[in-house]
């Protein structure tokens, strides 16, 4: 097989409603480049007919490769699975909701070659299609990350980017269990460029990043790139100590003046204040200890159910579909992957 120039990695979770539009817009762009390519659709444990439709599309689009995970593991872990599977000289990561236009991929590749850079970020120059809440929280997130992690964090640059093989190899060698690629990639220091684009509304379906997952991403970003929360816990402890010291001095002064009276209010407030600060500090410590615990377990962040491909090393089911053996098991995946039961949702 000839060497691939481009690998496009697209994590998907319950994206059946948008798949046809995604393929109809992505394929002409890649075909128009006139270079060998592959599209790796990473099914992140979808509960709808995403996998079945991907397999149907693959019958007419041999460049499409379906990588199905055994359960829902989250967007960043699914993206990691796609990056490990990609073999192109250039790798593009893009979501399937078409908010990031596939047409920009050609501009990214041209910019990387003309400017001699290893990374090209798709920067959202216009986000009017997003809600006011979404724009506000995104702006707050990037400002916070630049303050905590460093000035190298790009503004409005999500997971739509093009990377060279050198960058992808470094990413795949990192030992992180829960990487946040929008921070990890710029932290590597590779030469980079930006391509602005207008963010479009979601083509179909519902967002897969509700408030809860946004908060989880923010916590992973903070704990993965900064020890500032631990320092905050230290400062809270010092402030509470000074407050208590002042209360002790005031209590002795009142006792010496003979003006002490039984009072539950001050005691009640002091107990609540100290208890709240202690719980906050324990929670912050718990976030970091949890990451250490996950690292010591060294469990794989994802398991592959099957991987359709034309490469060597694949099993062939009774229906002729080629299936990769999962790296974590010696047993082949089900031959008829279209009839697998629904996978569990992300927890």
TrEMBL record:
Q: Where primarily located?
A: membrane
What range(s) does the Glycosyltransferase 2-like domain occupy? Answer: 7-169
List every stretch annotated Disordered. Answer: 315-347
> Could you tell me the membrane topology recorded for this protein?
Multi-pass membrane protein
The record ties this protein, via InterPro entries, to:
Glyco_trans_2-like (IPR001173), Glycosyltransferase_2 (IPR050256), Nucleotide-diphossugar_trans (IPR029044)
Q: Does the keyword Cell membrane apply?
A: no
Keyword annotations of the record:
Glycosyltransferase, Membrane, Transferase, Transmembrane, Transmembrane helix
Q: List the subcellular locations.
A: Membrane
Q: What is its EC number?
A: 2.4.-.-
Q: Which GO terms describe its molecular function?
A: glycosyltransferase activity
Please tell me whether the keyword Transmembrane is annotated for this protein: yes
Q: Which residues cross the membrane?
A: 232-255, 267-289
Q: Which PANTHER family match?
A: PROPHAGE BACTOPRENOL GLUCOSYL TRANSFERASE HOMOLOG, UNDECAPRENYL-PHOSPHATE 4-DEOXY-4-FORMAMIDO-L-ARABINOSE TRANSFERASE-RELATED
Give the family from UniProt. Belongs to the glycosyltransferase 2 family.
The protein's name is: Glycosyltransferase family 2 protein
